[in-house]
Amino acid sequence: MEIKIALAGNPNSGKTTLFNNLTGSRQRVGNWPGVTVEKKEGTLKGHNEVTIQDLPGIYSLSPYSLEEVVSRNYLVKEKPDAILNIVDGTNIERNLYLTTQLLELGIPMVVAVNMMDLVERNGDKIDISKLSQELDCPVIEISALKGKGTKEAALKAVEVAKSHHAAKISQTYTKDIETTLKKIETVIENQVNHTMLRWYAVKVFERDERIDEFIKLDTAQKSQIEPWIQSVEEKIDDDSESIITSQRYDFITKIVSHAVKKKGSKHELSI
Ligand code: BGO
To answer: Coiled-coil intervals in this record (predicted)?
Structure first.
């Protein structure tokens, strides 16, 4: 049985280095359908049944850039068996923004924290097990450049793909938002893939301008949901998309304060 693993990460996170390390010369290069964004696919060395699908380097899964649209169309419509999310360990806070969005997709996922050679050289510390616990998904330290931990990360992705076990990240936002998302979920649950319910609910809440490519809401559904969104917006005095963005950052700040210690920072890690 073929296993498809999508490799996702920010630009400059080391994605190309990791892709080359995992696939060697067994790569096929083309374009994503209809757009001039490069599409690279390869076979995991020593595992002919495992395909690694490289996604464009992206910071987010918003509908505003071609690369982000290509990536999310692939993830939502093709639904790979697992996501291998490469994260730059020297810039972890920024990189986790994409990670938290990917986790909402309900696809089994492994986070590979890259550039660990640099993190160590800088004297910084990342508590991998704490990070794994807070994200509710396996986290592996790697150095793509030195080829350390890369095979282990890929094999972990194969393992989660086979287990079909996805993270249950369910407390990213404040209670008002979580309650509204739950209500939206009940309205749309019969129209979407159940594992992706949370992702859809967040996108509907954000009034994502391209969400109708994935889900068609009728007038009754829209007029049921819209007052819920407006009520939260009035209470917090911000638009729904900005609310999600800022609460996502708050969630990440909390995770980083628990799991990352920069050299010279006052806060000790609670290991
Ligand atoms: C240059 N450790 C270290 N130290 N560097 C790494 C690691 C790692 O684990 N992984 C990747 N890099 P890409 P995207 C470069 O190219 O794979 C480095 O965009 C340089 N180039 O070698 O391209 C990697 O595909 C000149 O660095 O990332 C690359 O995600 C001087 O991170 C950069 C210094 O990796 C980006 C670095 C001419």
So the answer is: none
The CA distance from 53 to 41, in Å, is: 5
What is the pTM (predicted TM-score) of this model? 0.95
118: CA distance to ligand 1 center in Å? 11
| Helix/strand/coil for 63 | coil
- Write down the ipTM of this complex: 0.97
Q: What is the pLDDT of residues 1-25, one digit of tens each?
A: 899 999 999 999 999 999 999 999 8
- Which residue segments constitute the domains of the chain, with CATH numbers given? 3-163 (3.40.50.300), 175-252 (1.10.287.1770)
Cα(56) to centroid(ligand 1), Å? 16
What is the strand order of the sheet 3-9 is part of? 27-31, 38-43, 50-54, 3-9, 82-88, 109-114, 139-141
Cα 246 vs. chain centroid, distance in angstroms? 17
